[in-house]
Design brief:
The chain has 113 residues and is mainly α. The chain has one domain (2-99): Arc Repressor Mutant, subunit A (Orthogonal Bundle). 53% of the residues lie in helices and 9% in strands. The protein has five helices and two strands; from the N terminus they run ββααααα. The protein has helices spanning 34-46, 50-61, 66-73, 77-99, 105-108, and strands at residues 2-6, 19-23. It has a two-stranded antiparallel ribbon.
């Protein structure tokens, strides 16, 4: 599934160069049981580098403010923002492999998956 979005002002909406196509995954599939989903999520999280995992857990799971997280981990706020972005991107990549909807073979043809 793709989502179209525009970058820029209203005048630029007529210019096709300003159209950005973003891939959107549907995460709510029925291929995995709740237990399997939990296991997949835990494995993906534990596969992160320790600092990325710590930042992800403190910020996104525990919802601790970034300033407090920076103090707790003895890192700068800017460094934590980088670690958090890296963790989110790695998790998205790992989870997309497990939760990507299966496409019928007729649509794939000879395209490698």
């Amino acid at each position: 599934m793709a989502k179209l979005s525009y970058r820029g002002d209203a005048e630029a909406e007529d210019n096709l160069e300003d159209v950005v196509i973003r891939e959107v995954f549907v995460w709510g599939d029925n291929r995995h049981s709740p237990e399997q989903t939990t296991e997949i999520l835990e494995q993906a999280m534990w596969s992160l580098d320790p600092i990325c995992r710590a930042v992800f857990v403190l910020r996104d799971i525990e919802e601790i403010p970034i300033e407090q997280t920076a103090l707790a981990l003895n890192r700068s706020v800017r460094a934590l923002e980088t670690y958090l972005l890296r963790a989110r991107l790695q998790l998205r990549e790992k989870l997309a492999r497990s939760f990507r909807p299966a496409l019928p073979e007729t649509l794939l043809g000879d395209y490698p998956v």
